[in-house]
Amino acid sequence: MVHHTDAELPLPPMKWDAWGDPALAKPLPDDIKGLLSAALGVSASDTAGPTAEEVLLRPSALSPDDLAAITAIVGDGHLSTADADRLPRSGGKSTPDLLRRKSREPQDAPDAVVLPGSEEEIAALLALCAERRIAVVPFGGGTSVVGGVQPDRGGFAAVLCLDLRRFDRLHELDELSGEAVLGAGLTGPQAEELLAERGWELGHYPQSFRYATIGGFAATRSSGQDSAGYGRFDEMVRGLRVVTPAGLLDLGRAPASAAGPDLRELFLGSEGAFGVITAVRLRVHPLPTSKAYEAWSFPDFATGAAALRAVEQQGTGPTVIRLSDEAETAVNLAMTDKIGGTQVTGGCLAVTVFEGTPEQTAARHEATRAVLLAAGGTSLGAEPAKAWEHGRFNAPYLRDSLLAAGALCETLETATEWAELDRLKAAVTEALQTSLKQTGTDSLVMCHISHVYPTGASLYFTVVAAQQGDPLTQWAGVKRAAGEAIMANAGTITHHHAVGTDHLPWLGQEIGELGVRILRAVKDTLDPAGILNPGKLVP
Amino acid sequence: MVHHTDAELPLPPMKWDAWGDPALAKPLPDDIKGLLSAALGVSASDTAGPTAEEVLLRPSALSPDDLAAITAIVGDGHLSTADADRLPRSGGKSTPDLLRRKSREPQDAPDAVVLPGSEEEIAALLALCAERRIAVVPFGGGTSVVGGVQPDRGGFAAVLCLDLRRFDRLHELDELSGEAVLGAGLTGPQAEELLAERGWELGHYPQSFRYATIGGFAATRSSGQDSAGYGRFDEMVRGLRVVTPAGLLDLGRAPASAAGPDLRELFLGSEGAFGVITAVRLRVHPLPTSKAYEAWSFPDFATGAAALRAVEQQGTGPTVIRLSDEAETAVNLAMTDKIGGTQVTGGCLAVTVFEGTPEQTAARHEATRAVLLAAGGTSLGAEPAKAWEHGRFNAPYLRDSLLAAGALCETLETATEWAELDRLKAAVTEALQTSLKQTGTDSLVMCHISHVYPTGASLYFTVVAAQQGDPLTQWAGVKRAAGEAIMANAGTITHHHAVGTDHLPWLGQEIGELGVRILRAVKDTLDPAGILNPGKLVP
Fold first, then answer.
1. Which long-range contacts (CB under 8 A, 24 or more apart) does A28-37 make?
2. C-alpha separations of A94 from A146, A403, A408, B177, B439 in Å
């Protein structure tokens, strides 16, 4: 069954059983381990998972004839059934995904990985797969934390991972209009590098930035940490090209239009279930020439949240604005290296960053600080904000270390109106703590506001507890409790992680059963055979 | 055939054969008539249309049994087949609509007008109409200029005008989040009055403001003259309720979500073809406490457009910013009463307005004026901007007078990227002038930018010529030429007027044939009998 072979295709820059770059992994300091043990009863896990060489993958179900037909479309060197190619594309990066990687039973994997090089090749692949009843999972950076790239066969004979990395071009940069057309397979850093060479920036920096792709950002309605300044990814999208089994869509003719419903919005968040996004036309801006930082302390979360609300409703223009609650602030204090001479001393930490021309940066900074001061904030100077920015993409490495140390650690996120924020935060915290208690462990639940809107904000929760019994089963119950609390308290089931498989149980509550029927109708129109990303988004 | 009866229902505050309030109509001054005659060869039309009492409407095709069944749903006093009720709901306000009103042949009209009072009544009406094969045209202010409320039977036995004026409540005002839930039947002034009583404002001021409704704004992706400050109407929408033949949709749970495609965007621009919008949750803001005005002159349109682009791309925050081209500036100069001591002296006139707190207004004004000065603008002081605001809703009255004087007068609008703006403007102007010349008349084509985006802007054209032959046929050819020029030069077929019947020929080019199939699939899911607003939006 095991026939380990060397990789034949370029690999995603991502560990198969943990986050990111192996070189950046950082084991937990012993004092933190002691703290976890004392506070939460976490004890080191004794179940080491298999190595990449030891892991068993289900063997490829594609026939030599299938493989020949696929190769005839994409040419030599763009198709592989090697375990070493299939393994790193076998799923996403949620805690359940990582826990499943510890299994020594045969693991799910795509039956092959294909790297098409053109829209025509994708169209031909989709036609072939519809005819031969092969499922297709479009694959970008593989950073989904909601099961979005799970290689589900969905009742078909096999499943093909369609890796978009060859769609890696800056097709067009319109400097007058501030628009760039970017290939869907470009990772965040690749896209920013191509733009920066010409003096431009997209400004989309989600935690997955280093690995996730332009197509993935679009397909999941991603939102970056600079969303206060540059908007959510969907707000940046001016147009997109999508290859569907029913044909090509090229949507978005003008900055704004009244020519019927905005069909771009059907593909933002379509999660590979309606078609394969190949290129995205995006609003870009000149690289900022100036940057300012300031961190703030608020006596409590409610005061801090009211301050963020005032900033956003008055439109003073920070590029980044975020607020940690008391628990997260305390943990940051404990976990982070000492920062300059300034110490965060309890309360709630807020971070602000400002970008633009020197004049814009100064004006935005000044206007924002006036609002934050008036709302009860105490300045902590620039250093804690710089420290946040320095480590902004590294939290997933910490989760790896916590999981390795025997802790259960996961994140979840939601959003709601300002008027509902306290209620939602309290309800989700309570649901997480209570459901974990029922599994026999205390927990640490931390929360921050990472995205603000005039009418509301997101809430991002991080939970740490001890693993009890089968941690997959344990987390499934906790996640269910949290999801129910979100839906019962005016939250959305996901603010920027998408639906995938994990949030599917709540989609009917989110958009109504009739809303689900609309998605189904669109799916049936574009993908009548149902081959695209089975089990995701559309129930 | 004619059985004129008194109105039984509250009437729309709108003339049946012209724009708006009869009290505000203003005949053209004699010297303007002379100018039209000399420059364009316009001669007074000798075909006076029928009066409201003389007009022939097609008789109601609804049977006594149908009427009884409808009355059983909505109760007495909410259904009428009287000509006086049907006539003012027989169409919209495009120039072709108004020209058709001059006919002494039997005119199209809905077979009855119904005023439901609840979502349940609408659901029951839709079920009844699906069963009895009666088409339904949702009706708000009746201000469509694209045939959007035409009483088309679409192959059914009869057509019912479903007037939403009883959905006239401010359901909810969340002052913390800045959100209001407004009934779909509220007109612009009604909505603003309800909000102003509590210190809030929506800030949506399209030219149709005085008559059009909240539901109509949503159903057509309306954009108001304050869009630079407060956004397009679709950007204000946080949620909406839609009664469809397949059930109720209640969309929009949070300020932002990644829970799949944003289905609100399917109903913004749905033009009554997918369902009946009953209530809209909208972002609102505190009434501004301060306001500043400044008008500007630019040597030419290209310089002015570059200046507007700089303002929008730098985000200096005007509430209103617009630019008339040389022709429109010259005509404004000729048509408007003298304004204070300041005279607009050729070139291109730009208008800016700033709102907010005194500090915000001052900061926005200062930052904007710095950009406009640097871009080559000359300040004309506040008066021309105040004069623009004073007359901002009155252009349609002018059209009435021009039509009555024998001129052909109509508007059309589009949008594109900044880089394409000059090309699009030149191409549409050329198409209008050439096609009118072919009908035997010179023409005056004026244009302004009324809505700006970081990546592009709208173009709004007004054309005046002499009527030649049948002016309906004459305009149909001109409109076709303009539409083709728009599509061939990177424009959208409509920036804020919607599709209706008039833009339907270009929808396939706008969103692709596959895009049209998506709309059809959504329509078939929500309105399987196809009774909703036949002939609009979905080909």
1. A28/A398, A28/A401, A28/A402, A28/A404, A28/A405, A32/A334, A32/A335, A33/A405, A35/A334, A36/A402, A36/A405, A36/A407, A36/A464, A36/A466
2. 6, 12, 12, 32, 67
Which pTM value belongs to this model?
A: 0.96
Tens-place pLDDT, residues B428-458: 999 999 999 999 999 999 999 999 999 999 9
Report DSSP state, residue A35.
H
Q: Helices (H), strands (E): how many in chain A?
A: 18, 19
Smallest CA–CA distance, residue B243 to chain A, in Å, is: 11
CA distance linking residue B148 with residue B515, whole number of Å: 20
Report the SS3 class of residue A481.
helix
Q: Are strands A348-356 and A320-324 parallel, antiparallel or unpaired?
A: antiparallel
**CA distances in angstroms from A255 to A336, B230, B263, B462, B492, listed in the order given:** 43, 16, 20, 21, 9
How close B143 comes to chain A (CA, Å)?
A: 15
A522 contacts chain B (CB < 8 A): yes
Choose among A378, A372, A373, A352: nearest CA to A299. A378
Which DSSP helix (H) or strand (E) runs through B444? strand B443-449
pLDDT tens digit sequence for B343-390: 556 799 999 999 999 999 999 999 999 999 999 999 999 999 999 999
Q: Which two tokens stand for residue B408?
A: 């052909």
Q: Per-residue confidence at B44, pLDDT binned at 50, 70, 90?
A: confident
Q: Would strands B158-163 and B134-139 be described as parallel, antiparallel, or unpaired?
A: parallel
What is A106-168 written as a DSSP string? Answer: PBP--SEEE---SHHHHHHHHHHHHHHTEEEEEESS---SSSTT----TTSSEEEEEE-TT--
Q: Do B261 and A457 touch (CB under 8 A)?
A: no
Question: E strand or H helix at A373, and its extent?
Answer: helix A358-374
Please name the member of B221, B315, B419 whose beta carbon is closest to the beta carbon of A174.
B419
Name the DSSP class of A175.
T
Strand-strand pairing, B134-139 and A378-381: unpaired
* Number of neighbours of residue B120 by Cβ within 10 angstroms: 12
Q: Are strands A285-286 and A200-201 parallel, antiparallel or unpaired?
A: antiparallel
Is A368:A351 a contact under the CB 8 Å cutoff?
Answer: no
What Å distances lie between residue A129 and A86, A124, A153, A166, B435, CA to CA?
A: 18, 9, 12, 20, 50
